[in-house]
Amino acid sequence: MCIFKKSALLIGFVLATSHSVLAQQVTVDPSLFTEGTALYLEHCSVCHGIEGDGKGPLATGFSPRPRDLTKSSFKFRSTGVGEFPTQSDLLDTLNRGVSGSYGSSMPSFDFLNERELLALVEVVRYVSGIDQFGVAVAPPPRPVNVDMDHAQELYRELSCAGCHGYDGNGQGDLAVGLLDDDGLPIKPANFRTGHFKGGADPENIWMRIYTGMSGTPMPAFGRNTSAADIWAVTEYVIKLSNEE
Hints:
- 42% of the residues lie in helices and 0% in strands.
- By secondary structure, it is mainly α.
- The protein starts with a helix and ends with a helix.
- This is Cytochrome c domain-containing protein.
């Protein structure tokens, strides 16, 4: 790409995203932001759009659709309910990509070096209006023993089975007709595949249950469920994912 065209795209990106009230409240690192803008245009804008609104030229061909970053709604966080993600959360998503039970169009960007990833995070922070990163919530230690009968009861009492199915296949009674915050169809995770969008480590699964997945019908159970009970449900989900 010639220098003139690349510079024009960079200016276009800044002008387009600066209309966001949220973006205007964010102070960025100029060096990282400039580098990150070029990387965003090269790797991300084709899906997430030049304005970060999830309306890139390839967006309509994907299900689920690329995220609208301007809504400041993040599925994969280690922070409290309704809070912004940490910098590490965003880095983890870029490094890991998003691989769910029904597949995903979000690849891993682990081929980028640390500075390049930090530069991309700076752009996401700007577009999403993250004036200050959130503070991580550390899950309590994983229990050594869990009463699986009690865990199964919780799985049903908390209505997990309603969406994910009693055997975790993602085909619960409420699964059909679920919509995300953009009004687009969304499927509950099929635990039997063993694939988890936010990571398959027990702590990752605990966090998804605790903090929910913003922008989706998946609620935050941390509001009214004890950490111990969330661990019990986590262990039951892991059990389902290991069954053939």
